[in-house]
Amino acid sequence: MKNKLIFLAFSLWLGISVACAPSEKPENTNSASPAADSPTDSAAAMNAEDKALWEKAKGLFEALPEKIPAPEGMTDTPEKVALGKQLFHDPRLSKSGAISCNSCHNLASAGVDNRSFSLGHGFKQGGRNAPTVLNAGFHTAQFWDLRAKDLTEQAKGPVLNPVEMAMPSEADVVIRLASIEAYQENFKKAFPEAADKALSYQNMAEAIAAFERTLVTPSRFDAFLKGKGEALSAEEKKGLETFIGKGCTACHSGVAVGGKMAQKFGIVKPYPNRKDMGKYDLTKKEEDKYVFKVPSLRNIARTYPYFHDGAVWELKEAIKIMGETQLGLVLDPAEIDSIAVFLNALTGELPPDARMLPELPASGPKTPQPAI
């Protein structure tokens, strides 16, 4: 009985996002998704100053589409997405039966757990900050060191990682999923061409990736990019101008406002934490020392703490550090405030379906019981 109570308490702790908001976050005046465009809201109705900024922004960024396109040769069917949503939220993909993808990439808190390092199997702590899963399909590669080429490859990693979900092998994962009768049917519906071989580790990862490609979060900035000048306040437009003018777009541009390249962290001034050598740990190439994927800045006001080591909890402090380490700039408080105001406008909203928890299928007689 005592063990059951401990497990229940642990599961509730993992499933609920309880994060203390930073004391110094830019105020979000309106994070609602942009409304549909109308002719009167088009770029033609902008004043000259706004239109010039809009033209500049269009050359650097892209508005989010409704969904991330599936890779060539794949189709994201409703059945595949629904299965992926179940798997994303199912703790039975972990050895303990207590940790799901959502434990570290909580959709209730912008796809992160708001911890410097996530807690995994046996309360072990990971070595890098968990990046947000929102809009991740727009990235050129996955993980801080870019070791996974896409979402499917990324989804395979944590399940077998001994520090994270700790399943012993791909075969063990398949056996566990097969012990749940409804999953056998759901895999066949999602992968009808595979027939009796539908339930596989590869297809598990593909289904999770299909669901993750629906996690697109349009913001007021996207409405501005589509020509709706009033979508951003005067202060946010000033922040966008500062963001561009100071050179932040050298790395943070495109549809995800980042995520498209790797860069050395500490180009001008070394970052204080030199323990994690980034991509170098994989390649052992000198040029890869302290090289990390440039993160997306979408939803950045909610995805604290910041950087690969989760060491910085305040957005304005992160902006200050980036100016010094990457650009060689000592930004004054007004410039930092201005950029922070703009970055807050990148906070978007999940699609309605992604906000709802799925119903998970019942375990079978051979499904292992949770055991921490």
TrEMBL record:
<dbReference type="InterPro" id="IPR036909">
    <property type="entry name" value="Cyt_c-like_dom_sf"/>
</dbReference>
<feature type="compositionally biased region" description="Low complexity">
    <location>
        <begin position="28"/>
        <end position="45"/>
    </location>
</feature>
<feature type="binding site" description="covalent">
    <location>
        <position position="248"/>
    </location>
    <ligand>
        <name>heme c 2</name>
    </ligand>
</feature>
<dbReference type="InterPro" id="IPR051395">
    <property type="entry name" value="Cytochrome_c_Peroxidase/MauG"/>
</dbReference>
<dbReference type="InterPro" id="IPR026259">
    <property type="entry name" value="MauG/Cytc_peroxidase"/>
</dbReference>
<dbReference type="Pfam" id="PF03150">
    <property type="entry name" value="CCP_MauG"/>
</dbReference>
<feature type="domain" description="Cytochrome c">
    <location>
        <begin position="79"/>
        <end position="184"/>
    </location>
</feature>
<keyword id="KW-0575">Peroxidase</keyword>
<feature type="binding site" description="covalent">
    <location>
        <position position="101"/>
    </location>
    <ligand>
        <name>heme c 1</name>
    </ligand>
</feature>
<feature type="binding site" description="axial binding residue">
    <location>
        <position position="121"/>
    </location>
    <ligand>
        <name>heme c 1</name>
    </ligand>
</feature>
<feature type="binding site" description="axial binding residue">
    <location>
        <position position="322"/>
    </location>
    <ligand>
        <name>heme c 2</name>
    </ligand>
</feature>
<keyword id="KW-0349">Heme</keyword>
<keyword id="KW-0574">Periplasm</keyword>
<protein>
    <submittedName>
        <fullName>Cytochrome-c peroxidase</fullName>
    </submittedName>
</protein>
<keyword id="KW-0560">Oxidoreductase</keyword>
<dbReference type="GO" id="GO:0042597">
    <property type="term" value="C:periplasmic space"/>
</dbReference>
<keyword id="KW-0408">Iron</keyword>
<keyword id="KW-0732">Signal</keyword>
<keyword id="KW-0479">Metal-binding</keyword>
<feature type="binding site" description="covalent">
    <location>
        <position position="104"/>
    </location>
    <ligand>
        <name>heme c 1</name>
    </ligand>
</feature>
<feature type="binding site" description="axial binding residue">
    <location>
        <position position="252"/>
    </location>
    <ligand>
        <name>heme c 2</name>
    </ligand>
</feature>
<feature type="binding site" description="covalent">
    <location>
        <position position="251"/>
    </location>
    <ligand>
        <name>heme c 2</name>
    </ligand>
</feature>
<feature type="region of interest" description="Disordered">
    <location>
        <begin position="24"/>
        <end position="46"/>
    </location>
</feature>
<feature type="signal peptide">
    <location>
        <begin position="1"/>
        <end position="21"/>
    </location>
</feature>
<dbReference type="GO" id="GO:0004130">
    <property type="term" value="F:cytochrome-c peroxidase activity"/>
</dbReference>
<dbReference type="GO" id="GO:0046872">
    <property type="term" value="F:metal ion binding"/>
</dbReference>
<dbReference type="GO" id="GO:0009055">
    <property type="term" value="F:electron transfer activity"/>
</dbReference>
<dbReference type="GO" id="GO:0020037">
    <property type="term" value="F:heme binding"/>
</dbReference>
<dbReference type="InterPro" id="IPR004852">
    <property type="entry name" value="Di-haem_cyt_c_peroxidsae"/>
</dbReference>
<dbReference type="InterPro" id="IPR009056">
    <property type="entry name" value="Cyt_c-like_dom"/>
</dbReference>
<feature type="domain" description="Cytochrome c">
    <location>
        <begin position="234"/>
        <end position="347"/>
    </location>
</feature>
<feature type="binding site" description="axial binding residue">
    <location>
        <position position="105"/>
    </location>
    <ligand>
        <name>heme c 1</name>
    </ligand>
</feature>
